[in-house]
């Protein structure tokens, strides 16, 4: 180890390895995909994969993609919920892989809700 | 000027050097603090600072617990109390607890009236043992010819360990087991005879109780003296005459040579010889051997070989160097040999009827006498070895009032001695005696001032250069096996610059031997014995071995050439490598 | 890698491993592979979560779902349900004792709620066998900062200001110890990490070494820089194979990255670490005994002074700190002494890890801020007493700690308060006792331990503890007298006052504290020959004998009456 910079470079690289593990502290944006039978049959897996890839490509920190069970809105599957810290969760319906980029770009990164995809806000 | 600090002990302020312990300071303040494990033979570099017995506990202001006086350094303004109930209770309780796990057969104990634990119980006024309970019972190890180990009497002061490991570097004794069963012994608690123990006896010399004592050979001597068929001859080593008096209440360093000879005669020995005669013969042989090695590019340095513990040490610890020591047998073995050959022949006595008893300051001599390779014609040179202490006990048993004995002489011819042989009893003495002879022989002169003071002293390692006929003879001296080890490491690595090295296993030499009267941790005792040795040398008119008329006569009449063929057969030996355990 | 969306953190501490967490990791990987999720889900073996009562533990992140008592056979369900369908496996969630509700999140669980993790910060979070994961959580940043931006004096000052005290038992201020060693000038000095965890049932140091070995290596290097040592030894029990393995892996990785070795961070500071194995003697936790053992000698203490800071290993100035103490150092450097000082009490800063054991529901490892009450630890974190029984006492500080009665449970715990009620912090053992425990028998049990573990060097400990034990045995056999109780006190106080090292100086604590707080139980044993908890078998025998004797005498009497 020659310098502090060298260590910090390793830290940058390595932090990607473990950035999923900070969950549960309330500081992160969570993207939840409904993965009940209905969701999976409606193509939720592909949506989930696309979300993970996009988050990865953009090297977003404190953004976690996770899956949940059926939320009861089976008509709108695949359903994706985005919860930013200290904001009310937003529920998007019929999120096919091609819509993933827009949600990430607008809502996750810039905090701007993609209104035309919203199923219903504030369901909690 | 050393830095001085002030401490207050029991309300009395004293100013003492900064490096003092509380115990040292208490001595200055006139306050007695009892000790047990503590041992400080400062000048002999044997210091036991284990602070394990907890008998010297005192109160120190500001410290939550009691402190061991022997191991606690003082600091400026320290306030110490030794007289509070808490401190007194602490000290007495330690002795009580030790006694609760100690056999109480004091009346028939070999250390009766010489036991430091016993004395302590008396001093602290211990009248009952409030905490009696289970006691350890270990078997008695009397496997060796030299020492008896009775672990049930061990109080874990660890002095023997310090002597064995730090001073002598033999590494035989160490604490075994844990907790209540802890005891000191060799690895795996092997019998002593199966270890590399040199039997130097320094552990015995410092043991406060009877956990380590010499093998008692007194009954054998009584038996022999009362056997009309036996011709019993006795010899005594030079170091006995300056120490024996201590057993009879005399000041350390009192010379009792005349009373010693008289006492031996009273006991009924047929001949009272002096090991000094053997020492003079040793010098004749050793001086010739050294000159031989010097002249013929022989193995150098040459090491002296009078000390059996040292010989055993080199065989076990430096088996690759067994060709370095002189091949001379030790003085008492030589005297034994000469008694059973030369003397027996001359007086027409069957050597098989002769019993040779050696009185030695040493317990290793007991083991040495049993070495089979030293035997001549299938009989031992020396049959029984007893220590100074055993001899003192015999005299008491015999009802001899030592104080009132007249001064007598040793018997001829093997009682004739010189100043050179007397100084064999101290470190530096053997080599000084050798130099006196080598000098005269190499120069052909008769040197008047025989005192080579450069060779004297009590430090563990010394060196001196003696100029003989333009040739520089470099001499090294070691007393204590740890010091010997240092010189031997140099010999092993080829870095040794000496021509001759004198080694004695015991700190101070034979005067500090393991068979001497107990010094009870006072190195002044040893130093006074050394002064007495040199005083005895000064009293002698003949102070060179080659001037011992009886010795030279023996060579003329019987032995032939010194270091010659017959001498080789009778007076020399060889050493063999031994396993290190 | 970028496709990974889930991390399954499987506890790889000794406790969980012994319950099959190794097999569980394999099973999870196998099932994930089968379903084609290997890329998406990473299974990580981490250090101890501390909740050993409910092991093996699996924490799924970022979902923050905490599964307990997971068996290898559960792997299939976890993958099928949680990974594929996004549903929690309900029956693997934690249920608080005496409550119905299932708790899925770690921080909702009372066991974790009141904990504050500094020393254990990375245990259960990172893979201890991957140095990069440690670096990812700011590992070695403290060392780098110290070496490149601070002088040794500044580092010592930081540690001093933090108020960190030795976590191994003594509670000696760490910064002060460093300073003492720093001040003793010598060409050679040593750092020793004391990992000779000997208290029965205690395993905080083991867990740190298993779960976060680099934090200790980093702190040792920092300490080395501060005092001027280039060599560190970790004295670790040979019975800790997993910790030894993880340490060896960590040392290798650190050497490879140049975080141990020469010219660290481009400076002229060199530091390396070597392991020394202990054979499990309790007394080797005492620093001078430990040093003797490292040197190859018999593990027994020396009289102090001289302290190791003056003359320690090979007679060179040596700084000995405990594992947990070291684990606290990097965060102190990075987050500052004020941050550290904000946790804990005025004289005892920061947190302490305790090994909670005995009659509580949640046995395990807990890290709590200093100043928390014993009641909070036992009843909140520990979930109360097993089987709804009544608490009788709690013993802190390992085998030579004292027993604290119920009435003192609300005292905020720190070094000084524990000492004031006759116990001690020790290294963090905490054993809870209920009404079924006999306090006389308990103190006899501890005495048996210390008596056996005494090195035998000094008289008070070697003989005194034996005698104490004998008296206690006499009492539990129904042969005790009231005088024996006085003898226990007088002997116990003598041993404390006169012993050579900490072992003897504390060994009578269990006896003395139970005699103080539970004297009635002793009196019951001694006067009425009765063990109220019904534990002491000897006294039962005695009772039987007494009854038989009574019956015999009665019969004899009746006979005599008939005769008359």
TrEMBL record, chain A:
Q: What is an example of a Pfam family matching this protein?
A: 2Fe-2S_thioredx
EC nos: 1.12.1.3
Alphabetized UniProt keyword annotations: Iron, Iron-sulfur, Metal-binding, Oxidoreductase
Q: Which CDD domains match?
A: TRX_Fd_family
What's one GO MF term for it? hydrogen dehydrogenase (NADP+) activity
According to the UniProt record, what class of enzyme is this?
Answer: oxidoreductase
Q: Does the keyword Cell membrane apply?
A: no
Entry keyword annotation includes Oxidoreductase: yes
This protein is called NADP-reducing hydrogenase subunit HndB
From TrEMBL, chain B:
Cite the GO molecular-function annotations of the record.
hydrogen dehydrogenase (NADP+) activity
Q: Could you tell me which residue ranges the 4Fe-4S His(Cys)3-ligated-type domain spans?
A: 86-125
**Enzyme Commission designation:** 1.12.1.3
Enzyme class per UniProt: oxidoreductase
Q: Locate the 4Fe-4S ferredoxin-type domain: which residues?
A: 189-217
In Swiss-Prot or TrEMBL terms, this protein is called: NADH-quinone oxidoreductase subunit G/NADP-reducing hydrogenase subunit HndD
Enumerate the NCBIfam families for this protein: FeFe_hydrog_A, FeFe_hydrog_A6
Mind telling me which InterPro entries this protein's record contains?
2Fe-2S_ferredoxin-like_sf, 2Fe-2S_ferredoxin-type, 4Fe4S_Fe-S-bd, 4Fe4S_Fe_S_CS, Cytosolic_Fe-S_CAF, Fe_hydrogenase, Fe_hydrogenase_lsu_C, Fe_hydrogenase_ssu
Q: Which UniProt keywords apply?
A: 4Fe-4S, Iron, Iron-sulfur, Metal-binding, Oxidoreductase
The UniProt entry, under PROSITE patterns, shows: 2FE2S_FER_2, 4FE4S_FER_1, 4FE4S_FER_2, 4FE4S_HC3
Tell me the organism. Answer: Alkaliphilus hydrothermalis
In this chain the 2Fe-2S ferredoxin-type domain maps to: 3-86
From TrEMBL, chain C:
Q: Where is the NADH-ubiquinone oxidoreductase 51kDa subunit iron-sulphur binding domain?
A: 440-485
- Leader sequence range is none
UniProt keywords, alphabetically: 4Fe-4S, Iron, Iron-sulfur, Metal-binding, Oxidoreductase
* A Pfam family assignment: NADH_4Fe-4S
InterPro entries, alphabetized: NADH-UbQ_OxRdtase_51kDa_CS (IPR001949), Nuo51_FMN-bd (IPR011538), Nuo51_FMN-bd_sf (IPR037225), Nuop51_4Fe4S-bd (IPR019575), Nuop51_4Fe4S-bd_sf (IPR037207), Thioredoxin-like_sf (IPR036249)
Q: Among its keywords, does the record have Metal-binding?
A: yes
Record-listed E.C. numbers: 1.12.1.3
Q: What domain of life is recorded for the organism?
A: Bacteria
Recall the GO molecular function terms of this protein's record: hydrogen dehydrogenase (NADP+) activity
Q: Which NCBIfam families match?
A: PRK13596.1 (NF010120)
Q: Which family does it belong to?
A: Belongs to the complex I 51 kDa subunit family.
Please identify the protein, giving its name as recorded. NADH-quinone oxidoreductase subunit F/NADP-reducing hydrogenase subunit HndC
State the organism of origin: Alkaliphilus hydrothermalis
Q: What is the lineage of its organism?
A: Bacteria, Bacillati, Bacillota, Clostridia, Peptostreptococcales
């Amino acid at each position: 180890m020659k310098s502090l910079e060298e260590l910090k470079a390793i830290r940058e690289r390595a932090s990607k390895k473990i950035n999923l593990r900070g969950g549960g502290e309330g500081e992160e944006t969570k993207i939840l995909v409904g993965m009940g039978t209905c969701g999976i049959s409606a193509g939720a897996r592909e949506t989930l994969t696309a979300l993970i890839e996009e988050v990865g490509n953009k090297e977003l920190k404190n953004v976690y993609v996770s899956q949940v069970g059926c939320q009861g809105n089976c008509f709108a599957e695949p359903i994706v919920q985005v919860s930013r810290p200290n904001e009310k969760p937003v529920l998007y319906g019929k999120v096919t892989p091609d819509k993933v980029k827009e949600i990430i770009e607008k809502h996750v990164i810039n905090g701007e809700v993609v209104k035309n995809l919203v199923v219903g806000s504030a369901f909690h | 000027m050393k830095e001085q600090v002030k401490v207050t002990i029991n309300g009395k302020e004293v100013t003492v050097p900064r490096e003092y312990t509380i115990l040292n300071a208490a001595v200055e303040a006139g306050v007695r603090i009892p000790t047990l494990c503590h041992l400080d033979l400062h000048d002999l570099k044997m210091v036991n600072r284990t602070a394990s017995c907890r008998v010297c506990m005192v109160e120190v202001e500001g410290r939550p617990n009691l402190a061991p006086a022997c191991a606690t350094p003082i600091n400026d303004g320290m306030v110490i109390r030794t007289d509070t109930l808490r401190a007194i209770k602490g000290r007495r309780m330690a002795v009580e607890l030790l006694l609760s796990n100690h056999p109480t057969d004091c009346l028939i104990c070999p250390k009766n009236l010489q036991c430091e634990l016993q004395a302590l119980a008396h001093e602290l006024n211990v009248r009952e043992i409030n905490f009696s309970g289970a006691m350890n019972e270990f078997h008695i190890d009397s496997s060796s010819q030299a020492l008896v180990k009775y672990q049930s009497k061990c109080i874990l002061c660890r002095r023997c360990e310090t002597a064995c490991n730090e001073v002598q570097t033999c590494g035989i004794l160490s604490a075994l087991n844990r907790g209540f069963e802890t005891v000191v012994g060799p690895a795996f608690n092997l019998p002593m005879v199966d270890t590399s123990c040199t039997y130097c006896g320094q552990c015995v010399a410092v043991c406060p109780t009877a956990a380590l004592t010499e093998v008692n050979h007194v009954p054998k001597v009584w038996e022999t003296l009362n056997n009309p068929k036996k011709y019993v001859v006795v010899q005594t080593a030079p170091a006995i005459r300056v120490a024996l008096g201590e057993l009879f209440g005399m000041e350390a360093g009192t010379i009792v040579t005349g009373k010693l000879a008289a006492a031996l005669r009273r006991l009924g020995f047929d001949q009272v010889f002096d090991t000094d005669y053997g020492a003079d013969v040793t010098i004749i042989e050793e001086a010739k051997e050294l000159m031989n090695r010097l002249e013929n590019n022989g193995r150098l340095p040459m090491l002296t070989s009078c000390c059996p513990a040292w010989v055993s040490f080199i065989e076990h610890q430096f088996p690759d160097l067994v060709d370095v020591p002189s091949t001379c047998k030790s003085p008492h073995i030589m005297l034994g040999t000469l008694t059973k050959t030369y003397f027996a022949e001359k007086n027409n006595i069957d050597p098989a009827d002769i019993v040779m008893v050696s009185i030695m300051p040493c317990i290793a001599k007991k083991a040495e006498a049993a070495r089979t390779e030293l035997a001549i014609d299938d009989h031992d040179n020396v049959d029984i070895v007893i220590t100074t202490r055993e001899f003192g006990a015999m005299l008491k048993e015999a009802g001899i009032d030592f104080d009132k004995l007249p001064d007598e002489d040793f018997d001829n011819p093997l009682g004739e001695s010189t100043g050179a042989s007397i100084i064999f009893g101290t470190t530096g003495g053997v080599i000084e005696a050798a130099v006196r002879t080598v000098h005269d022989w190499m120069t052909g002169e008769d040197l008047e001032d025989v005192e080579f003071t450069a060779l004297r002293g009590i430090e563990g390692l010394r060196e001196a250069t003696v100029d003989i006929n333009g040739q520089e003879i470099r001499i090294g001296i070691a007393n204590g096996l740890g010091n010997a080890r240092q010189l031997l490491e140099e010999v092993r690595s080829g870095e040794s610059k000496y021509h001759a090295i004198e080694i004695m296993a015991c700190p101070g030499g034979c005067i500090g031997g393991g068979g001497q009267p107990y010094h009870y941790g006072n190195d002044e005792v040893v130093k006074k014995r050394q002064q007495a040795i040199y005083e005895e040398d000064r009293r002698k008119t003949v102070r060179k071995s080659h001037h011992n008329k009886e010795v030279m006569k023996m060579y003329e009449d019987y032995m032939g050439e010194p270091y010659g063929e017959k001498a080789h057969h009778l007076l020399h030996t060889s050493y063999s490598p031994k396993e290190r355990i | 890698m970028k496709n990974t969306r889930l991390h399954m953190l499987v506890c790889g501490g000794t406790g969980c491993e012994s319950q099959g967490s190794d097999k569980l990791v394999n099973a999870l990987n196998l099932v994930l592979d089968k379903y084609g999720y290997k890329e998406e889900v990473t299974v990580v073996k981490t250090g101890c979560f501390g909740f050993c009562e409910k092991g093996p533990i699996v924490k799924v992140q970022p979902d923050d779902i905490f599964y307990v008592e997971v068996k290898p056979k559960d792997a299939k369900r976890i993958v099928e349900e949680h990974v594929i369908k996004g549903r929690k496996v309900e029956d693997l969630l934690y249920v608080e004792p005496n409550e119905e509700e299932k708790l899925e999140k770690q921080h909702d669980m009372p066991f974790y709620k009141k904990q504050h993790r500094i020393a254990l910060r990375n245990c259960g979070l990172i893979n201890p066998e991957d140095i990069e994961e440690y670096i990812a959580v700011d590992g070695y940043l403290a060392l780098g900062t110290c070496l490149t931006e601070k002088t040794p004096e500044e580092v010592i000052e930081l540690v001093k200001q933090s108020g960190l005290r030795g976590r191994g038992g003594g509670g000696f201020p760490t910064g002060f110890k460093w300073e003492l060693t720093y001040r003793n000038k010598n060409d050679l000095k040593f750092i020793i990490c004391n990992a000779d965890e000997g208290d029965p049932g205690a395993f905080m140091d083991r867990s740190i070494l298993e779960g976060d070995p680099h934090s200790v290596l980093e702190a040792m290097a920092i300490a080395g820089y501060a005092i001027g040592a280039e060599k560190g030894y970790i004295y670790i029990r040979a019975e800790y194979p997993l910790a030894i393995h993880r340490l060896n892996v960590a040392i290798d990785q650190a050497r490879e990255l140049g975080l141990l070795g020469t010219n660290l961070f481009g400076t002229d500071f060199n530091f390396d670490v070597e392991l020394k194995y202990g054979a499990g003697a309790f007394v080797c936790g005492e620093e001078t005994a430990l040093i003797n053992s490292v040197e190859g000698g018999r593990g027994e203490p020396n009289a102090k002074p001289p302290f190791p800071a003056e003359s320690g290993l090979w007679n060179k100035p040596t700084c000995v700190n405990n594992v947990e103490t070291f684990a606290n150092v990097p965060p102190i450097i990075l987050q500052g002494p004020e941050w550290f000082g904000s946790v804990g009490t005025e004289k005892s800063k920061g947190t302490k890890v305790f090994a909670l054991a005995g009659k509580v529901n949640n046995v395990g490892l807990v890290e709590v801020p200093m100043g928390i009450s014993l009641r909070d630890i036992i009843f909140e974190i520990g979930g109360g007493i097993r089987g709804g029984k009544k608490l009788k006492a709690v013993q802190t500080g390992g085998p030579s700690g004292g027993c604290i009665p119920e009435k003192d449970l609300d005292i905020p715990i720190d070094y000084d308060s524990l000492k004031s009620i006759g116990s001690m912090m020790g290294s963090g053992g905490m054993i809870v006792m209920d009404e079924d425990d006999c306090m006389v028998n308990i103190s006899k049990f501890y005495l048996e331990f210390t008596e056996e573990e005494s090195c035998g060097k000094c008289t008070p400990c070697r003989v005194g503890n034996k005698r104490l034990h004998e008296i206690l045995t006499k009492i539990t056999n129904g042969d005790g007298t009231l005088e024996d109780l006085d003898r226990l006190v007088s002997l116990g106080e003598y041993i404390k006052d006169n012993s050579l090292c900490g072992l003897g100086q504390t060994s009578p604590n269990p006896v003395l504290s139970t005699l103080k707080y539970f004297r009635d139980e002793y009196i019951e044993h001694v006067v009425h020959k009765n063990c109220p908890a019904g534990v002491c078998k000897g006294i039962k025998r005695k009772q039987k004998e007494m009854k038989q004797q009574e019956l015999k005498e009665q019969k004899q009497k009746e006979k005599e009456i008939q005769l008359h």
